[in-house]
Write a structure and sequence with these properties.
Blueprint: E1 4-9, H1 13-25, E2 29-35, H2 42-45, E3 50-52, H3 55-59, E4 66-69, H4 76-85, E5 89-93, H5 100-112, E6 117-120, H6 127-137, E7 144-152, H7 173-189, E8 194-200, E9 211-217, E10 222-228, E11 238-242, E12 246-249, H8 255-260, E13 279-285, E14 288-294, H9 301-313, H10 322-341, E15 345-346
Parallel strand pairs: 1-2, 1-4, 2-3, 4-5, 5-6, 7-10
Antiparallel strand pairs: 7-11, 8-9, 8-15, 9-10, 11-12, 12-13, 13-14
Helix pairs in contact: 4-5, 5-10, 7-10
Amino acid sequence: MKKIRTGLAGYGLSGEVFHAPFLHTNPLFEFAMVMERSKNLARKRYPYVERVHSFDQMILDPSIELVVITTPNEYHFEMIKEALMKDKHVLVEKPFTVTSSEGYKLDDLAKKRNLVLAVYHNRRWDGDFLTVQALLKQELAGNPSAFEAHFDRFESGMNFDSWREKDLPGSGVLFDLGSHLIDQALCLFGKPEEVTANIEIQREGGMADDAFDIHLHYKTLTAVLKSGMLIREPGPRYQLHGSKGSFIKYGIDPQEERLKAGAWPDEKDFGFEPEESWGILNTDFNGLHFRGNIETLPGQYNTFYNKLYESIRDGKKVPVSASEAAAVIDVIECARKSAAEGRTIRFIDRGAE
């Protein structure tokens, strides 16, 4: 086993919570370098990691094999391109890029240079989403007729020190949280035929969108994806309805909060959800009617890094490929067009062009 020597570009929320703990605990990786331009926060928890001030210092280091990019969205394209041109494998935070055309260009570049380019859509490994996937695979709700997923928060105030709240390329809740929900829907049902969307700025003084309602239209169902920052009493996280029954799930996967609280991802029961948060399944099964709680499958964020290692070392499938992540941006662009024009539009699959 040869560890992958890794550099982390950026130590904001994403770098600190979603990447550094996994690089530290996963024996397949060597957490070697972190880029912090002005602060030196990583040193407090990872005193062994070398700190650099610039991205060039990282990608010019011949010992670094993998670069993890967690900088603001508008910088993703150029930083990924620069890293690939220096023969580095790249993992970038979602959303992949601010336009789908940028995403497909980077996908082509990575393939030409025989490098792995992965995008961190970690919510594929939320326990509740894994449970929904399993229910669909086993057809416990029958043929799906409707699906609804929410990513709701209550943040009535705004933090204009955060780039996510500013009027910048790739800012706003659609790119931030919407990319998660869209990626999940594409995993479950594939690319839609049509898209209808409403995108709003609901908070007074807001500069970036903070609410959306997207309908992805398929032949036999519509997937409804919603998020808002003024939801003080959230409804179900997931609703799945089908020819045999329904699955309703409240609450959100606990991995993020545990990471924020300082837990390590290799701790026992890290991804397990308490019983009071399990979802309700109401269905017919082998001639019997069942209504009750279904234990949520454990969340598995560490699986992403294990699969990333296999894709780099063994040539196996990338856990979330650049083309898959670019398709998410395709949907975002269709949603923005639908909202701007006030109509349902045909899905534009630029990856097929």
